[in-house]
Specification:
This protein is mainly beta and 93 residues long. It has 1 helix and 6 strands; from the N terminus they run βββαβββ. The strands form 2 sheets. It has a 4-stranded mixed sheet with strand order 3-6-5-4, with helices on one face.
Length: 93
């Protein structure tokens, strides 16, 4: 069951700001890729397809799909056998 973010108020330089505080995820293995906290690392790779092929033979599984961010990067997330989430980024151009 997903929790709802809570609104919090902060004072900064005399200005009051309200922001959302996402719920804490108790188990990183089932956390979405945009969950709050240090749940993943990101690595730059030269060839994302070759890297995925090599890591799949070692038990990594693609989470979602490889996506293209503008004309700058190809990006994806993988989960290894230990359930750690790792992001891969291939710079284009």
């Amino acid at each position: 069951m997903a929790s709802t973010p809570t609104a919090r108020t902060s004072q900064n330089c005399g200005q009051e700001r309200t922001f959302l505080a996402p719920p804490v995820v108790a188990d990183h293995r089932s956390a979405p890729v945009n969950a709050l906290g240090y749940l993943r690392v990101m690595s730059a790779v030269d060839d994302i397809d070759e890297t995925l092929e090599r890591l799949r033979t070692r038990g990594a599984q693609l989470v979602g799909e490889v996506v293209r961010y503008e004309d700058a990067y190809r990006l994806c997330y993988i989960r290894g056998p230990e359930e750690l989430l790792v992001g891969l980024a291939q710079e284009l151009g």
